[in-house]
Amino acid sequence: MAKRPLFLDRDGVINKRLKGDYVRYPHQFVFENRALDALRTLAELFYPIIVVSNQAGVGKGLIALEDVEVVHQYMLSKVEDAGGRIDKVYFCPHHPEEGCLCRKPALGMAYRAQCDFPELIFEEAWMVGDSLSDMQMGSSLGMRTALILGKEEEAALLEAFPVARRFHSLWDFAVYCRAEASSSSENC
Description:
Helix content: 25-40%
Largest sheet: 6 strands, parallel
Strand order of the largest sheet: 3-2-1-4-5-6
CATH architecture: 3-Layer(aba) Sandwich
């Protein structure tokens, strides 16, 4: 069975979001409950698995670009050690007011992924995130969208994206996809 693409937001989906701050160092990167199990399960069902993350702390001068890279290396090594897989990480380091083309909901990171994975078809992909910008990016490209619940603006998100599937965690999404894959010949 052919595997479909999966796009994941980082903060609030894979790792715990730091309220009012940015994850600057590996010791601050705390995986969400069962996220490593989810990534192991999702690795069996999806290819490629791509992380797309806005990291405005760089553009605001609060995080060094190198520190973001170190955090991502830490994340990737822990995911791999747990038997999971993330095929590529893209992030936007720009300040929100710069108006760059890579900051979600803009599509720059998705198009970069398509260049790196030419077989990627957006209409066959999922976008899993916890924010309006995640849902907008996925929707703009015709992806199926999955909203991870728990962020403050949740009510507005639910109203703005009534078609997005809702899950309490990445693990719940993985369980759903595993059940869908086993009940049909298609992947989630």
